Queue: 4 jobs
Job 1
Amino acid sequence: MQKIDADFESLAYQNVISSGEYLLGTSKEIDQKTEQAVLKKLAYAHYFTKNYEKAEEYFKKSLNGKSDLNQDAEVLLRYAQVLSANGKRAEAAEAWKAYSTLKESKVAAEDFAYIQRNPEPLNRNNSSYSIEYLPLNSTASEFSPMIYGDGLIFVSGRPKYNGVKRIFEWDDSPFLDLYHIEDREELNQLNTTTLSGAGRADKRSKALGSDFYTPETANDGPTLSYMATTSAWEQPSIEARQVSRKLNSVYHEGPADFFNNEQSIIFTRNGIGKLKYENEDGLNRVHLYIADKEGKDWTNLRAFPYNSGEYSTGHPAFSVLEDILFFVSDMPGGFGGTDLYFSVYKDGLWQKPVNAGSQINSAGNEMFPFIDDNNQLYFASDGHPGMGGLDLFSVPLAMNGKPEGRIHNLGAPLNSKYDDFGLVAQANFTSGYFSSNRKNGTADDDIYSFTRTGTMYGCKNVEILASNNGSGKPFVGLEFKYYEINTPQISWSGQLDESGKAEVCLEAEKEFYFEFDENKVDYKKIFFSTHNLSDIRPSQLVVELKPKEVERQQEKIEEVVPKVMARITDTRFENYYAGEIRGNNDEPVRDVKVRFINKCTGEVKEAVTRSDGKYAFLRDKECDYEFIAMKSGFATTYEFIPGEEPKKGLLAEVVSNVMPSSTKKEVVTSSNSSFFDPKVFRVGDVVQMDKIYYSKEEYALSAQASENLDQLASVLNRYPDMVIEVISHTDSRGSAKDNLIMSQKRSEEVKSYLMSKGISGSRVKAIGKGEASPVNQCVDGVQCTEAEYRRNRRTEFRILQIERI
């Protein structure tokens, strides 16, 4: 027992397993207390060495086969985790439910139980990704890939056969080193194994659905793929070499990141020699070390200033500006096992590390961070609700390192019931690499590549609840349509059931409008955002609607003849058209469906006139538009509206052919009204401003922009509760990293200008999207005209709040 205790304290888990199983198998007079202690240590030893089947066996024995309120909370947590990893959903759900009553992290544990019973939300985006097993993998562990130049750096425990057998007592595996492949294209050329979240078999197997380490689908059968029955694929078919003897030591080297134009590296390793940290328990923990490139090798090896012998630091990841370093540590004061921390590099010094906070860190382990060129943080965690083991998550970061928005589980097939971690992504998450032990479910980690062909997060369940705002009774059978606000020409329809409810699945991280049957209820356009929605639980959209008053049928027969309506005025501002519809009695006409069709792009926008007959549309002032006004009982009105610089080939004769000359009205231009007026726009609307910046300083405000921003400041002063987002975009030329930085500076410049006009900074949220959200097909690799690029270089304002709720 003394040996078992000593080995457990020194993390020699393989020794614990040998001694513990020997003791239980030979000693017939062991007392119950000692037996329970051995069972618990054996369970943990198998858990940490990734033998989850044996871990389940011993955790279950240590719990006496129960998962009630009187059990050890830590044991119950690990038991729930291994049940999830072993695919025993029903038992895992019960264990998570029991654990939720023991810990403060009640919500997270309840969500774990929920996802075990209802795994579909994390599986539904399977078809958006294809997964490839890479030919660099061996029988040892390979994980944590990192892009370096045209190549790939990764961690491997493959033996080096240099006459010295270096074995890690944790699990009797070789020590880890950094390896390098110089050309990533070789991975694609030599790859022989293509997997799919939809269950497609590998290229060497004829049986459909035969891969056994992606989530099960209707195509999957009991036959294992070729990979499962042979070790031929376990031998790497592409040569990798050690990075450097000056970086690799006789102990562990782990995940790394590069900075300073890849001329410097920060990496994880055990301390050795003068760089080893002493501590009372005698453990040689891992820490962060930095080195610089000199010629073909690395020199000037030095320690990160916040290393300590009392805790570990590792798994480094730089922010997009390389002024903030994220890393993993189990230093005192955290939320769980290992947490994410960050340190700011300022005035040549690393500042004291800051815990990344409870939004990111949990009671479990957060590890393996990576930050892409859009400042999106990816990390692995077993403490946030997921599919089992370590799951991959993402969250956007502000430029100060703080998370912005909700954490998302990336779902299958990137995640599985096993450990999935060590992700690195490229090109707006359209491709990348990650690590997983899904093939065997043990400590045998492998590296995979992924390609995204669909949405990043899939769709989120939303339950619509509609009632009469007078009586509270549900609207039974009411029809509605909904569409993403940027593509109103593509819409979907639905109908409320007998309880006034309906369920829809909306694409994540998008904004939508809902419109209800205007023949039965007063027109109401509902804005709904899927930003920050739960990955696993349905969200709700609660709507109160007013039934439409039934008009008395006392109209004379002659009044049934369609009436004429006319567009009385059209006011052109910098970024929108605003106008008014009147009838032949010169009275404003309400509930007219007004459609604006952009003849440059084909984009269709719709609105409905209010009681004063008014409407407004965002516009591109250089494009022609077709205007259509429709209302029951009125003749449909068509009109052609030329842009300020009419396009060739578009004929204004269209107007003459479809519209009587008596209905044409002169366009009136006004500069007195303010754009961005809450009387015209609503919460959720986006107002776009063109040509805010001169190219000379790239983010300095132009004189014209200052004039427009003065109008915006005036509106914000008139509406003291109004809150807006300033969102800047660039085109796709140049690097994604530089574009993200530039767009953020542009948004912050606008925010600073508004603050100089007396607007509180808390009312203006500055966001830079870089090249991530184009309005057309001008992305990397696509040649476009300057006019097409210009459409993507834009700054938008989104109304988040007009009046305090």
Job 2
Amino acid sequence: MSKGNLKKYSWLLVIPVFFILTVIYFSPEFFDNKSLQQSDLVHFEGMSHASQVEAEKTGESPLWNSAMFSGMPELLTSSLKGDPTHFLYSLSMLFMYDSFETPMTVMLLMLGVWIGLMCFRVNPWVAAFIAAAFSLNTFYITSLEAGHVTKLWAIGYGGLILGSMRLIFDRKFLLGGALMASSVALELRAGHYQITYYLCFVVLIYGLSELYFAFKNGELNTFLMKVVPIGILAASLGASTQLWRVWTTQEYATYSIRGQKELSALPGQENNHTEEGLDKDYAFSWSEGKMESLTLLAPNFFGGSSQERVSEDGPLAKQLEKVAGRQQAKNIVQNPNFKLPLYFGEQPYTGGPIYQGVLISFFFILGLFVLDARQRSWLIGGTLITLMFAWGKHLQWFNYTLFDILPGMNKFRTPAMALGVGCIVMALGAALGLSKVIEEGWNEKTQKAFLKAGGTTLGLLILMWIGAGMMDVSGPRDAAIFQQMFGLNDQNMIRQFTNALDEERISLMRADVMRSIFFLLAGLGAIFAFSKKKLSTSLVIVVLGVLTLGDVWVVAKRYVNEASFQKKTNKTFHAANAADKEILKDKDPNYRVLNLTTNSFNESTTSYFHKSIGGYSAIKLRRYQDLIERAISREMQVLANGIQKGDTLSVKATPALNMLNMKYAILGPSAQAVFRNPNALGNAWFVDKVIKVNSADEEMETLSTINPSFQAIVDVNKYPNANIATSYNEGDNIKLTSFNQRRLKYTAESKNGGFAVFSEVWYPAGWVAKIDGEPVDIVCTNYILRGIHIPAGKHEITFDFDPNSFVVGGLISKIASYITLLLLFAAVGLIVYNETKK
């Protein structure tokens, strides 16, 4: 096979090599029936279980989850029946995602970047080892361990999007358009909109750069008349395949904690309060320090993670030896559970650094010296913008300004993850730069670029080694750690331990910098040997590939290794205890449970078994979050104290919990630790008085003063024309006759009719109420519930959740998906036809 054909059919070798690397790294999954215990996936199982059961029973996508926070929109497990893009998704995971989702996510990163690089016409073998090393970035590996797979899917598909742009800019319109539509569809299907948001800025910078050079080269007319329209049409087609997903998400964002705030700030929170979106302190908690970005070159330059093993012969081990003796100190340090927060950066917690490999960083810097201005400009711009986003609160003039004025910016938190997108750009620049050096050979320009890039990288590492001893490496909780861990009260002893911890950090920082210097010098030596023709092109690629991949592989294994995997079982992560079993004896189709044994609003176990007052979600409804902060949290304390003292609580003592039909409270794991609430108000009831208020603040304030069993609150400014007349009579009743998450039926009987309150969370975007088949208005009642006026007599009342965003959006999405697949098949078919013809 000729060299040209070897490159053309490189995928026949590259894809199997990627698969082999994936199998080796994740061998416990493939050969030992083990898996990572990913915390977010454990939570996902708990929060989605009810929806999955409902979907199997009804054949409908759930859309609404009744098991969390008394009911909320369900987007995580919802899907479009017969979605054609499922084929693309399965193909991108090599049809193995169900069985081996974790390892195939890493392979997706490899393939996404490799295909993207091939679109940039990079040497396929250089592209292969850069893509493989890129996928083992510690940020991606630690994200995978936490279960943040959608984040990594979005990053992997981001490489395809940039590659499709290159094809379109090169006037390969059919293939580029097909890849653009398909990759945008997959990007949005991944559903991690924060990564997509940051990626859009990189795409914009790339597009503006090409626009400038089209103008400069006299190609502006073609660019504006062909390139731009085709690119926009292809991207729009891809986005349309996920219209239902984007539409429902955007719709929900309006009413979630990312949306408009209706209440005034709590006392003391005025400065942190925003009119819309997340509060700044919450949104920017995980901001990466500017110096912390140097972990791209040396992983432990900021201490590593918040849970790190310490060295057996390091400063901390020696300090332990002084206090506890050599053998005891050795036992403590060798204990795999003995981990300390060696990370000392600005983030509250981190699972590890963002380390992409010192050689990839060097190749990127090399690319900035050897590539032409057209390529260099967008690579610099794309990297810089993601760094600036990642710095978050440490670059307030930029990020706080955008947070206040840019649409969507105030919906996201953890800005540090923007650098995960920046690493795509740096990997592209690294491959482009190295490929140019190898493909074009050694010349005077290459030599100068090599010396500048090598000197810059080496000089920076030397400064990092020197600077490690000058930095403040102490953490804010260091003293408290040793107080709690060893029960120390001696301030002098605590100071000795904290000093030893600082020395441990400096030692590890310098050790990793020296490690990076070693890999850099080895890489520089290989390129130098290539320049002197001591190494062939093929051999230098192999040597650099082994060094680059070996570097990141070893660091990644610090965080995900053999010990990270546990034996798979057929059992769920969630097992019912005696308290759960006791409650499940109740066959009432719809009641709620409050778990007082844990953080009720940050756990999903209760949701696995019951319809929970709490739950686990970062996108709660805004009004429900308000209720938690200003009513439920206080009432939980009142309830707990009352149960402990044996007091008989009135309905009025915990109005929010009672109107949410909290029938049971869990006080412990035993059956005897289940408290049955006699004041739970049931599924629905008539009231004999509606209190009119004029604002959300009044509505919330009044809630704590009412007896919800016969009083209700309505903001008449929101509903000036609503029928809220009451006429309660003894014997008036409402009964729930049929329940599933999207369909509820009641029968109501009343002498004169009146206003009824339903213990279901108010959400206006999609819920439709009907009385005897005729639509009626739903009124937000008691700040969070639904209320409707029911006429006299006997009636059937239904609530159905069929939002247009799903019904209409789903239809459009299916049509766009079929067009996208046809376009992709046409592009691939044309390539095959042309190759066959040749």
Job 3
Amino acid sequence: MTTTSFYPERVEAVRRHAADDDTAALVAELAEIACLNGGHWGYDGRAVTDVLDGLPDDRRIRLATALVDRLEAGDPDDGTSLDTLLTILVRHLRAVVPVADARRLLGYAARQWTWWPADELGGLARVVHDADGTLPGQLVAVLRRTLLNVYRSGAVLEDLVREVREPLLNPGEAWADRVLAELPGLGAGWPELVAHTLTATAARPTAKWERQAGTLLDRVGRDAYRDVALGWLSLVGWPRTAPLRPAAFGYDISQAYDPYNATALRGVLWLLALAGADDAGATRELGRLVETSLRKVPGLGPRNPKVANAAVHALSRLDGEHALAQLARLTARITYKGTLKELNAALDRRATALRLSRAEVEELAVPAYGLTEVGRRVETLGDATAELVVEAGGVALRWRNAAGRPVRTVPAAVRRDHADELRELKAAVKDVDKMLSAQAERLDRQFLAQRCWRFAAWRARYLDHPLVGTLGRRLIWLVDGVPCGFAGGALRTVDGAAVAPGDDAEVRLWHPIGRAVAEVLAWREWLERHAVVQPFKQAHREVYLLTAAEERTGVYSNRFAAHVLRQHQFHALAAVRGWRNRLRLMVDDSYPPASRELPEWGLRAEYWVEGAGDEYGTDTTEAGAYLRVVTDQVRFYPLAAPENNAHAGGGGYEQWVRPGADPVAPLPLEQIPPLVFSEVMRDVDLFVGVASVGNDPTWQDGGPAGRYREYWHSYGFGELSGTAETRRDLLARLVPRLAIADRCRVEGRFLVVRGDLRSYQIHLGSGNILMSPNDEYLCIVPQQSAAVGAGDVFLPFEGDRMLGVILSKALLLARDTEITDPTILAQLRRR
């Protein structure tokens, strides 16, 4: 068969060098052809390999050795051609490669994640295996991963992998390396137990699997297994111990779990549940594994959901309070749909077993973590005293020495004589911090849950609970319809009168919608008077009412349309707020809108978006996901209405309706309960306020080809959203208390700051800055730390990072003569 050559002069050079017996020139030419073809033979492959196949064996041996030399040298100029050179060796020269060169060649292959052509590599590995009786562990790992991941790998590789039993796990991951290092010294029964973990190939353990596992656990001892396995699991997620060559996967392959080891890891977790490891340390590790395994890697997605699900399964099999606490915490934090489904099912089963509602189980699942009163735990370690304190803004661990004086660091005697207790105490701090965050998010979602409590149960679960009480005492509640807050050791009205309701009084979360303006303002002043920092916005919560424009459009809102959002940030925010969304790829496919189901109200809210841009690589990630989306309407449908879908790149949404059924129209906005409408619009305002490219101070040029310049400017300095208006009202009260009050004032959409070099206008929505004269743009990129904020200035709620950014910029610019950052100084001095 004749093929057309893209590089005929190169093919001719191969023939010439072969005829001249010039091995060095032939190797260089082969590398050049491979490089020109992007690492593939392209149309020149048959012509080139025909030349190689026609060489005498002695010359093919020399050529093979020279190619191995080049591969081993790792010439960076070869680029992707190295892979092609290896393909030549395993496909066309394998039969003549000397065993010593084969070992060197396989050493190169062992630095890969997988290899193709798989059978050719398997055949070369067979040569070395038959000669040496074994194979290097890293190479075995490549062969196993290749068999699992490469389509149609073939019988040669499959037979070899089935025959090679050692090492038991693939080396290169910290946890697997520890297993392999410890296994010889653990004694009888342990190798068989670890081998059994490799049979955990189903989604859940079968009865037969568990019977065999139970027998093996009894041989090694269940307590012994628990202690050893927790040591292994503590290393899961650590950086690889054996780096791999970067490959064209579109993501950092070193962040992925080894798929062969992941099966064993699932078995290790199932065994942990059978061993009955229901204590704080074990369940804490299981909870960490869920989060670690779902941590997203750009281009890959979650690292390994099947391991995360196995950890959830293990937690669900443990009956104690520690496992239940982890399940409840994870349910409030995990957004990955498959694992969240497993978590929900586990909690539902627990609720059924306890004959309680799901909401009650989530409330009762929160442990005290050793706190003996609301927000406080005291431990005596030798002559020193440790105090764990839960405050607004986080968890603190404070120390006093033998004399009772506060000290900043852990006393040396505690480190020396109480290492285990200290380790447990530090772990408790982390546990409390994680649970506190999860409970704040759960409480924030209660506005739409229509949750109602009897006072006695509510008091035990929310007001006097050692941990949740630190949140409940900073919120406003309706007790038999009377708004109350906690101050001075008692529930009080906004006027300070103590409230003493009966045990059957009805308690709900207070929401500002529908309340008199005077009442809302009074509660804001109450928070400031009592220095109460709410865990999320409640008294200062934005309220969104129907506008005249929305009354005219009737069934949709355009209030947050025509914005350009960073897709991945929007996607993450949507998940946190309970919305269902799919990342849009630049492909010929359809996607539903971002949606939030509201079963308590029988409604579904939709936020319509579409991919932005049409240049692959410029407007997408390497994996093809749009970097940005453009927003459109907000609509509401009955919960059971057919799903809308639109092409990834836009073109309008349509309902997919079953044959014989009729489309379901969106509901008139005036029929949506005001609380539902307000909370949904608040979510959408959050998406825009956080994910808009208009918030990026480095986008003054408008992004790719300047196409978003007009939008960036209109958003970055335009009208304020509801969130920004709340920010403005609060700043108007805060500015007089600032140390720089004489240099600041709130004016329209801006916080105006007078420096010594210039005057500045900080936009209250985006945080972008204009400076005098001529409203020049000043680019200051804020720190990414969540600690960016207002210093010692009291803020009545947590969670508004932009408010902290604005205040930190104001504090900086008011003393502009003290600025030392060269990037900022260069802009200030430009005239």
Job 4
Amino acid sequence: MGKEAFFRSAEMSLVQLFIATEVGREVMASLGELGSLQFRDLNADVNSFQRTYVKEIRRLDNIERQLRFFSSQIEKAGIKVKAVSGYADVTAAPNSSEIDELSNRTEQLEERVTQLIESNERLLKKQVELFELRHVLVEAGAFFDRAHNVPEELRASLDNDNAPLLNTDAEQGDTSNGTTFSVMNIGFVAGVISREKMGTFERILWRSLRGNLFLNSTEIAESIMDPKSGEALEKNVFVVFAHGAGILNKIRKIAESLDADLYSVDEDTAVRRDQVRDVNNGISDVEEVLNTTQSTLKSELQAIAEQLASWMVVIKKEKAIYASLNMFNYDQSRKSLIAEGWCATDDLPVIKATLSEVTENAGLEVPSILNELSTTKTPPTYYKTNKFTESFQNIIDAYGISQYREVNPGLPAIVTFPFMFAVMFGDLGHGAILFLAALMMVLYEKRLMKADRDEIFDMAFTGRYIMLLMGAFSIYTGLIYNDIFSKSMTIFRPGWEWPYMWNEGDLIMANSTGTYPFGVDPTWHGADNALIFNNSYKMKLSIVLGFVHMLYSLFFSLVNYRFYKSKIDVFGNFVPGFLFLVSIFGYLSFIIVYKWAVDWYAIDMPPPGLLNTLIGMFLSPGNVEDLLFPGQPTLQVALVLLAVFCVPWLLLLKPLYLRWENNRKAKSGYENLPQQETTRLSFDEAEATTTVVAMEEMHEEHEFEFGDVMIHQVIHTIEFCLNCVSHTASYLRLWALSLAHAQLSTVLWSMTLERAFKMEGALGVIMAFILFAAWFALTLAVLVVMEGTSAMLHSLRLHWVEAMSKHFVGDGIPFTPFSFKAVLEDPEA
């Protein structure tokens, strides 16, 4: 890849391929492994079901359905699927005969597994029925054993169908004369029903039969497994007594509507005992056959699980091949496939070599041909990344894809993103925790890549190199702030000295003895005015860093303008924008640094207030009460006039020049200057949102409209000038979050470990252990995770909005080559 493949997107070429139909599949398999060619759909107007290879895709869809069926059954059986590590053993796509063999094998396996599953379900259902029947025989039989005979007078009273069944004597089973229920013209319905539906069943029977029934129910102690869902259900045995065939049929229908299972039970004790014996024998037989069936099914699924992952990889690759082949045109006269696509210009030799190799291996005399086409279409944007730069590039691509050959904001973000984070997160201890966590993920990345990762951990693992740099930069800023878990470190000799003697209640002041060599002097920690000092220092520092970051990003627009050879954008956009930014906010940054560099107390002068200086610069530029340096009033007047002059310069120069150029071209014989120069070569956020340029046509010509260009430039001018103010203020978040992080760390220390250290004796030791655990847990959860996430999001905003708006358009086309790696990593593929 070229030297600008990351600083600037790779140079792309539109190519045309002529491939013999006999090797079309093999060529696509090789190109899929290469992953360097993005194909264009030449059949966009053809229905998906009318394309050439729809039959093959349907066949592969059926195989994929079978594999998903196997996967669901394997998961249900609790069998672990053997993973394919990095797809290493299936890099080469199989040939057609292997696909045919796989299709036949999956067909046979599906039939076999389906039969075993159906047999298993039938046996489970039979087993459940026998279990339920045994409970019905045992529980209902206990009731029948108590009900021997009914007195004659009671039996006579029960001859009437309207006689109530819930008679006290019948309910209590007064059977002294040996009368049976059949003799009394009483029938019954016995069965098993879900326990949660038992109450509903009783209410429906009572209301439907108006109390002309007797219901007896008993809970089944153990749960009964549902053969379909596999859920354990709680059930009850019930016996309902009533007289009259119509009423009994009604009871059966009500029970069946509530998914109850009905069983036939005989009143005779001897017959029931024979039934129970037969049921027990049946349960033993069913369990024996069921164990054999389940063992066979598990063996089949285990054998499938060994190869399922490899089969899925093969089918995904095969589907991707035919899906791409459906994008090609078929030349019937030449019996060849015609394809078009984008690739990096540097990859052309590799692609040609791959095509030649496939043709030679196939033994064809007609080679595959690759032609490079001249085109006006906008190429896709492609950056060559590695495992380190990929995560930073993903941050930029999440906001927008750079235009073709535009400067890539992902390159400076490798340094500026973690640095901006560290300015807000500056603590040596917290940075070290973040750095060590990321370092472990980097050292064990190969092992973690193979492991199953949840969604949150996968996000952290993907950005492990970002976290590594964020932790390293936070250690550096922590040293600058002299802050480690809210405490200071005295590495060098302090530059301040406290008096040795003082009385309680005295206001003591430190005397300056020199300058601390690196970072903030530890003497400031614990001083009464430490917060005031840190506030002033970090607030001014954030403004300086913000100006440098914006100015640095603005220069990328100059690089873009020069690359596209647009001089009018250089002199009409960059130069006035640069002068406007420098004349106001560059001057503000200068006086901040100048004020730091002067020892005001040594020259016996009060340090001037910068806020009043900046306000007075616009209200009365030539009138300065507290001078910072000689000639300040004159310089401020000149800078204000320059800033005011830059506004009409930025507003008018480019539109007027383009109109003059258009008129000159028209007089020379051209009817209209292509508006491409006014649109394609603009790299401003305002123009990016309002310019109408066809994505597929980079040099598509439009009639020049001065009004449209003027409106675009007005929007750009207003946004640029206002954004210079708002974006500079936005960088104050560097100060605010840094201060909040430091104060929160101080509060956490004082509420936990500091209290433990004030205790004495054994209690102090015990509380030190307890409060250390609380302090460490809260440090990780709140200060590292939550505060770290907040600082990262703010740093992301500073790059997306404040920095990238100075040069980034973000309406490019992403390069999505045909790649097996991308297909296999896509969960929806």
